[in-house]
Design a protein that fits this description.
Strand content: under 5%
């Protein structure tokens, strides 16, 4: 439980983060200043420095909180699929990712737009990065479960572009620490680039030149990606 002082501090940090997010949503990222947050909370701007050393550190904390929310949304969608239906789980997580992004465009832009840099306390850097890793692992764990239960076709190492091989090897050994064929990681990144790239184009309005409703194009992408992983595509209800 911690001491009363610890609980009061945690409650204040939570309120600061919620206030920053409300300003982000209502007014945009440029409006999320320490002065604006303090004014909304009835505090002085210098008082906020007892909780965060800088504006960028506050934003990194907010990034961590939002990543945590998104991760919980994806896990909820995954667990709503009964049994061992891997096709259903993959589709549910992909669709929930898109729905969350469209419902929270400014939060999405904060997470997947320009990186927030400049945190001065290592614990804030670690908090944001750990939350981002938890989000990323949601997709990676699902992908690895697919591979372990029913391995899908992948290229042999020597068939992968020479410029990609050392990068995939570094990602496998230094980041993931997993014993996997490089082709599995290449396939994972190909799928992630299509999924996240398509969602980003839609969220940021870059498909409006051609599409009023990008949902059918998103479903077309899922119908093409699924079979490459040995999954069965089913349209949304």
């Amino acid at each position: 439980m911690g001491t009363r002082r610890d609980r009061l501090r945690a409650a204040t940090v939570k309120e600061i983060s919620e206030t920053a997010r409300r300003i982000l949503v209502e007014e945009g990222p440029e409006a999320v200043s320490l002065r604006a947050i303090a004014r909304a909370m009835g505090m002085t701007a210098p008082a906020l420095y007892r909780y965060f050393d800088s504006h960028s550190e506050l934003l990194r904390h907010l990034v961590g909180d939002i990543f945590t929310e998104l991760t919980e949304e994806l896990h909820g969608a995954m667990h709503a699929v009964e049994g061992t239906d891997m096709s259903g789980k993959f589709l549910a997580v992909a669709r929930q990712f898109r729905l969350w992004a469209l419902a929270h465009p400014r939060e999405y832009a904060l997470l997947f737009g320009t990186p927030v840099r400049g945190a001065t306390r290592q614990e804030e850097v670690d908090f944001a990065e750990e939350c981002a890793r938890e989000f990323g692992w949601t997709f990676m764990a699902l992908f690895l479960e697919l591979w372990q239960k029913s391995p899908f076709p992948i290229p042999a190492d020597e068939e992968i572009a020479p410029a990609l091989r050392p990068q995939l090897r570094r990602y496998r050994d230094d980041v993931l620490g997993l014993d996997l064929p490089l082709g599995v990681l290449q396939q994972f990144l190909k799928c992630w680039i299509r999924l996240q790239g398509g969602v980003s184009l839609e969220v940021f309005g870059h498909l409006e030149f051609a599409l009023d409703d990008a949902a059918p194009m998103f479903e077309l992408m899922l119908s093409e990606v699924g079979p490459t992983l040995g999954l069965t595509y089913t349209p949304p209800r």
